[in-house]
Amino acid sequence: MPGDLSVTSWRHLPAGEKDRVGALVEQFRKRFSRAPTFVALAPGRVNLIGEHTDYNGYPVLPAAMERHIAVAAAPRSDELVTAQATAPRFDLCTFSLRAPLQPASAGHWGNYVKAAAQLLLARRSDPRGADLLVDGTIPAGAGLSSSSALVVGAGLALLASAGISGLSRLSLAEEFAEAEQFVGTMSGGMDQACCLLAQEQCALRIDFFPLRVRPVSFPAGHHIVVCHSLVTAEKSGPARTAYNLRVWECRVAARVLAFLLNRLRPLSIDRLADLERHFPSVPRHSFVDLLADHIPDRPLSLDEIARVLKADVGTFLPERTKAPLPLDTPLSIVRRARHVFSEATRVELAEQALREGDLRTLHGAMRASHASCRDDYEVGCSELEALVKAATESGALGARLTGAGFGGCTVQLVQTEQLPEFFERIDQTFYAPRLPHQRCFADYRFAFRPSSGAKLVVID
Fold first, then answer.
1. Does 206 lie in the same domain as 273?
2. What b-and-e string marks burial along 109-128, b requiring 16 or more CB atoms within 10 Å of the CB?
3. CA Rg, the chain, in Å?
4. What is the DSSP letter of 331?
5. What would the mean pLDDT of 423-435 be, rounded to a whole number?
6. How far apart, in Å, do the first and last CA atoms of the chain sit?
7. What distance in Å separates the CA atoms of residue 427 and residue 429, rounded to the nearest whole number?
8. Among the listed ranges 123-127, 225-229, 289-293, which one has the minimum average pLDDT value?
């Protein structure tokens, strides 16, 4: 079981991390005319398989990256939090901890800092503020959890600046997942759990409700490769509505299935995985068959679903959804449920294949996941399809979209010795035609071995 979050001296960091922390400390000195006391390092993550299953109560299989959000912090004597970013496109964020936290405009990066501050406010009735300086090497809007890494990094920095220590990584992961709903995204907890609980050289099987993790050794001789589709899809912006719609569709699908399985006294079930717990004799694939037998496989509003089933519309209204959609919103509940149930099975298959070093089976599961994300969950785009095709033809295993979708990145496995050839081919076939005026594409694709979870570094 993961332990408490400990503090590491910057002197004991690996060379690369030490250099980066040192550079951030110097920038902090220049901006605030004093040294920071802590730097939090929060890694991004790539999901090998298990897309959109976490908020449905099913497991995921991500790995932490070597790219981080780094947040330097020093306490203030008043209640203000001032957050600056090293990148000039992000403006200054300042707010008081003594006033009710109100979100800024949708998509503003400061909303994630405010989300993080909720953990401090839950522990201190009259907290002091802090000066924060944020730096990052995780591409934004790429499906690599830069936003959750910012919440975790800012939160750890604020807690440390307030003198709060001895916190459980497991508890923090759950609290940060709840806190991030401040920005209006109904996330399921994978990003925060991987950020805090990841282990070096391992993928992480994560189960939910309750949160549990199980490391899975990543095979030697291979790297995880991430390639950007050149389409951004930031969950704090327009993609948030599409993401939340799918959460809503799955909640409704769970309610409909609970009704079909027990019409006299339908259970209040909002997560698809809970159906297996309440109806253990029903095989997983039978849930989809039951749904498809009663609901047309096309978009229907909640009112239309209720009329088809001759039931009251209130029977199918989810309880856990904090951002409900209009009742006339078209819902594709059969396709969404089919993806979630089949993806849950693929996660189990992929975990076993990874443990046994069976890369052929892992490849098949990841490719099937991509097809399901594209066809049943409908979170793909033409650029992702072209990139998956190019990666597969360049020798990658398991190329698939990763993250929420709607753009972002693909994930694939490549033999370590074949990385130079893979990058050369993917550059020629995908990036060069789309970026004709560039000669270097290293900002858009990279390889890594699984990294460890978040660190809190004291500047001594």
1. no
2. bbbbbbbbbbbbbeeeeebb
3. 22
4. B
5. 97
6. 30
7. 6
8. 123-127
**Per-residue pLDDT for 264 more than 90?**
no
Q: State how beta strands 455-458 and 7-9 pair.
A: parallel
Per-residue model confidence as pLDDT tens digits over 383-400: 999 999 999 999 999 999
pLDDT at 321 (0 to 100) = 55
Tally of CB atoms within 10 A around 392? 18
Q: Are residues 281 and 327 in the same domain?
A: yes
For the four alpha carbons of 447, 424, 434 and 383, in that order, the dihedral sign comes to negative
Catalytic residue numbers? 191
Distance CA 311, CA 303 (A): 10
Render 424-460 in DSSP notation, one character per residue: HHHIIIIIHHH-TT-S--TTTEEEE--B---EEEE--
Res 106: pLDDT = 75
Pairing of β 202-207 and β 130-136: unpaired
Q: Give me the numbers of helices (H) and strands (E) for the chain, helices first please.
A: 14, 13
Q: What is the CATH number of the domain that holds 246?
A: 1.20.1440.340
* Total of domains in the chain: 2
130 and 32 within one domain: yes
Quick one: tokens of 394? 């360049």
Specify whether 202 is located in the same domain as 75.
yes
- Does the pLDDT value for residue 324 go beyond 70? no
Q: Are 177 and 251 in a shared domain? A: no
User: At which residue do the structure tokens 């001759």 appear?
Assistant: 310
Residues 6 or more apart whose CB falls under 8 angstroms from that of 341 comprise 272, 284, 285, 287, 288
In this structure, the answer to whether residues 94 and 171 fall within a common structural domain is yes
CA 286 to chain centre: 29
pLDDT per residue as tens digits for the range 29-80: 999 999 999 999 999 999 999 999 999 999 999 999 999 999 999 999 999 9
For the chain, the farthest-separated pair of C-alpha atoms sits apart, in whole angstroms, at: 68
Residues 6+ apart with CB under 8 A from 417: 221
Q: Kindly state whether residues 79 and 201 are assigned to the same domain.
A: yes
Q: How far apart are CA 424 and CA 412, in angstroms?
A: 16
Expressed as residue numbers, the domain containing 25 is 7-217+450-458
In a domain, 367, yes or no: no
Q: Which residue has the tokens 């004093």?
A: 34
